[in-house]
Amino acid sequence: PELVIDLEFKDIPGNVSVERDEKEIWSSELKTGEENITHYLSNLEYHHFKYKQHRLPGQVHIHFFGTSAFSYGAGLKLEEGDQMKVDFPKCGRPLINSIKVDSGEEERIEVKQLK
Fold first, then answer.
1. Which of 85, 90, 100, 104 has the highest count of CB atoms within 10 angstroms of its CB?
2. Can you tell me the distance from the alpha carbon of 31 to that of 65, in angstroms, rounded to the nearest whole number?
3. pLDDT more than 90, % of the chain
């Protein structure tokens, strides 16, 4: 998606889909906007940006708001090369990602606190 700064964030319909071998194998309608989410955008902005570490010049913060559309709920198992597409036409071009399966060994990762 593109950065859209003049869109009224009330009711924004969209679609999510999965393609395999250039054929759509699953899709679902999406809805976002203040009429479809629990909190107002101004409330989310306040609670996010009240933290000093979230107000650093040059940083960009992207939020994906939850939805009820999940491909695994339909029994779909994603495979190498599948393409996932999230499209909100009012927001510009769709976001399209190809699935890459990492079949390597899982490594334990230690999370360290930044100081």
1. 85
2. 10
3. 37
Neighbours of 102 (CB within 10 A): 7
- Is 67 in contact with 30 (CB distance < 8 Å)? yes
User: What are the CA-CA distances from residue 63 to residues 2, 28, 32, 66 (Å)?
Assistant: 13, 20, 12, 9
**Could you tell me which residue, 83 or 70, shows the higher pLDDT?**
83
Closest CA to 99 of 16, 1, 2, 19: 19
- In order, the DSSP letters of 53-115 are GG--TT---------S--GGGGT----TT-EEEEE-GGGSSPEEEE-----S-----------
Higher pLDDT, 77 or 39: 77
